Amino acid sequence: MLKGKTALVTGSTSGIGLGIAIELAKQGANIVMNGFGDVEGPKAQIAALGVKVEYHGADMSKPAEIEAMMNFADEKFGGIDVLVNNAGIQFVSNIEDFPTERWDAIIAINLSSAFHTTRLAVPYMRKQNWGRIINVASAHGLVASAGKTAYVAAKHGIVGLTKSVALETATTGVTANAICPGWVLTPLVQKQIDDRAAREKITVEQATKELLQEKEPSLQFTTPEQLGGMAVFFCSPAADNVRGQAWASDGGWTAQ
Ligand code: NAD
């Protein structure tokens, strides 16, 4: 379905971003990867699907580096057809103790980076009258939790950004939608589980159970593959008129 198209997935060296990149590659899309940590392993995993893969290590908190990444993608593939804004970080603390530099970093990486990639990707998408912007928000883009002020603000912000971009492109073949996962067992969440286990002096297994019980009625994690499947749907002709939506895969979290 996406043969000959190019998808740029921010934060695709790990977790959900990698899962989405793999599912888009299975549909034939060439991939521009981004993110920190091990690059060669995930890159080989995607390349094994028979598509072209390029990597750019832009730091999503730095607008100039984001611009360089977008130019790099244009040079390599001629333009981005599918933009997945996925890179994100978390920090948990009550607001009075929240380090201001953590606030700035979360807003920059989880929200402002999507503004920069989108403003730079939309002209090409408009020109060819087809494009998909998929923002990885969160259940925390729809409801809040204590201790996550920056994350909740950024995720609500990206849902708003998604809606605005969807309206601006509503008469074109460009769509913008958000994916709102509940818990997904990635390094970002494993850290929260490990912190909980240490804080409450319980096993990691018990902490995992508690984490799910607290928010997620299904008591199950969503997988990166399932979220990749949702991204593939947003790219399909069936989703041509799905615009400005924030779709949850959260085991019932936000239905409560
Ligand atoms: P992860 O830690 O496995 O992956 C995060 C990715 O972002 C990595 O590739 C990392 O290198 C990259 N990244 C971090 N900071 C970056 C920066 N400054 N510049 C470029 N890349 C950077 O986490 P994940 O759980 O896969 O999270 C991916 C997205 O999904 C995030 O936006 C997160 O908020 C969102 N999300 C996660 C969950 C969950 O339960 N794991 C739930 C809802 C939403």
TrEMBL record:
<dbReference type="Pfam" id="PF00106">
    <property type="entry name" value="adh_short"/>
</dbReference>
<dbReference type="InterPro" id="IPR050259">
    <property type="entry name" value="SDR"/>
</dbReference>
<protein>
    <submittedName>
        <fullName>3-hydroxybutyrate dehydrogenase</fullName>
    </submittedName>
</protein>
<dbReference type="InterPro" id="IPR036291">
    <property type="entry name" value="NAD(P)-bd_dom_sf"/>
</dbReference>
<dbReference type="InterPro" id="IPR020904">
    <property type="entry name" value="Sc_DH/Rdtase_CS"/>
</dbReference>
<comment type="similarity">
    <text>Belongs to the short-chain dehydrogenases/reductases (SDR) family.</text>
</comment>
<dbReference type="InterPro" id="IPR002347">
    <property type="entry name" value="SDR_fam"/>
</dbReference>
<dbReference type="InterPro" id="IPR011294">
    <property type="entry name" value="3-OHbutyrate_DH"/>
</dbReference>
